[in-house]
Design goal:
The protein has helices at residues 3-6, 26-40, 56-65, 83-93, 103-119, 136-146, 165-170, 176-180, 193-206, 219-227, 231-247, 255-265, 398-406; strands at 45-50, 71-76, 123-128, 156-162, 182-188, 302-308, 311-318, 321-326, 333-334, 345-349, 354-358, 365-367, 370-372, 374-377, 382-385, 388-394. The chain is an alpha/beta fold.
Length: 419
């Protein structure tokens, strides 16, 4: 990687949520203050919304790092679940093994636990990330949980975080009682150009850049033009630009690197981007979050065959660009498994090849039984992520592809859409 060339101690623009890299813009600082207020007030929910990549999860992780020891936390990230599944997930976070309990027993166990923690002078906090995916029934269960109280006060503090659709869901007529319990709402918008510049400089400083200039001043307007101030897009473009500079052995980034990166990523200007489509489950992969333009039909240069326990789940076409794989719904490719990190790895596809790179995940990526940080994918390579296998097929070698797919049970040549 480029760390040695840029004299950095770690990668500054990783996509995984790392609290030490959190840049507190005015709006992020305010959202964090709202989260902190839940510790002292129990009279309602706090709701934090923001577009994909706005920094909600990193903000939550930073908040949790600083939380007092007398606070017991349940953090739920899997939100496409039934009411019973949700209650079980909360109890697991609190140290129970609830999988044989019926719903009435689940609720009673939770209620007793909350009252016991209050009696022991401990505060209990429930944080639900990606809450926009919760069903109305699960949201109603959360409201009922929030009503558990002693003679003096309610005993469960609740933070709901999610994409803007969460606000629409909370305002549904069926949830009027829950909406009345919302004490604070805050929406994280995009960064301003000045905040974006400070954000980039902050991450570089944390990574070890000190006061050295790595991004030329002229690059910032171009970065904003293509990212619109969205933190995750900023990270992606800046990381790719540093790779471009590294490729020509230059220890600073110039506008030409931004231009080359935008071309590699196949991005259009941020203002021209379509709104992100709804995310799809693990067996219906959308491939790319890019806007629907003529680029959506560009040439497929490779494929990922996703399998688990010998069963093929899907066939994902790879075009020039970058996709992020992880457990949560905001990834380009969602793998809903407890062995997969929020943002587990990325796949960078160029006209000449394909690379998979770990994003500081907990369980890593493995090729031929060995954990690797970065691997150049060759036709037929199998990458293991937890219990899933990602099998790479190079579409530029059609004869080899036909041979390889025959070795994978249940695999059929996919259509252009990967369905």
């Amino acid at each position: 990687m480029y760390l040695e060339l840029f004299k950095l101690k770690e990668l500054p623009f990783r996509l995984s949520p790392d609290p030490q890299f959190l840049y507190l813009s005015k709006q992020h600082a305010r959202a964090k203050a709202y989260m902190e207020s839940t510790i002292w007030f129990t009279d309602g929910f706090v709701v934090i919304t923001g577009e994909i990549g706005s920094g909600k999860t990193t903000l939550i992780e930073s908040f949790l790092q600083e939380i007092q020891k007398d606070v017991v936390v349940a953090q739920i990230n899997q939100t496409q679940v039934s009411a019973v599944d949700f209650l079980q997930a909360v109890l697991v976070q609190f140290g129970f093994s609830p999988f044989k309990m019926k719903k009435a027993e689940l609720i009673a166990t939770l209620n007793n636990f909350l009252v016991e923690q209050y009696a022991a002078d401990r505060k209990v906090l429930l944080i639900v990330d990606e809450a926009q995916n919760l069903s109305l029934r699960v949201l109603e269960e959360i409201r009922l949980l929030s009503g558990v109280e002693t003679t003096k006060e309610k005993v469960l503090r609740i933070i709901l975080a999610g994409q803007p659709e969460l606000n629409e869901k909370l305002d549904a007529p069926e949830l009027v009682q829950l909406a009345q319990r919302i004490r604070l709402r805050f929406h994280l918008g995009t960064l301003t150009p000045a905040e974006m510049r400070a954000y980039i400089q902050h991450r570089l400083e944390v990574a070890g850049a000190g006061d050295r200039t790595i991004f030329a001043e002229e690059t910032f307007p171009e970065i904003y033009r293509y990212t619109g101030g969205v933190p995750r897009l900023i990270n992606t473009l800046c990381d790719t630009a540093m790779m471009a500079a590294y490729g020509v052995d230059r220890d600073h980034v110039i506008p030409d690197d931004i231009t080359a990166s935008v071309q590699e990523l196949r991005w259009v200007e941020f203002k021209a981007r379509a709104q992100p489509a709804s995310r799809m489950p693990a067996d219906h992969f959308p491939g790319s979050r890019a806007p629907v333009t003529h680029e959506a039909t560009r040439e497929i240069v490779g494929r990922l065959i996703i399998a688990m326990e010998g069963r093929t789940l899907s066939d994902l076409p790879l075009r020039v660009g970058r996709i992020i794989l992880g457990r949560t719904a905001d990834n380009d490719l969602q793998i809903d498994s407890r062995f997969v990190s929020r943002h587990h790895c990325q796949i960078i596809t160029t006209a000449h090849g394909c690379v998979i790179e770990d994003l500081n995940s907990t369980n890593g990526i493995h090729v031929q039984g060995k954990r690797v940080r970065r691997h150049n994918l060759n036709d037929g390579d199998v990458v293991v992520i937890g219990t899933h296998e990602l099998m790479y097929v190079d579409e530029r070698l059609p004869a080899r592809r036909n041979h390889f797919t025959e070795t994978v049970p249940g695999t059929q040549p996919a259509t252009e859409t990967g369905e």
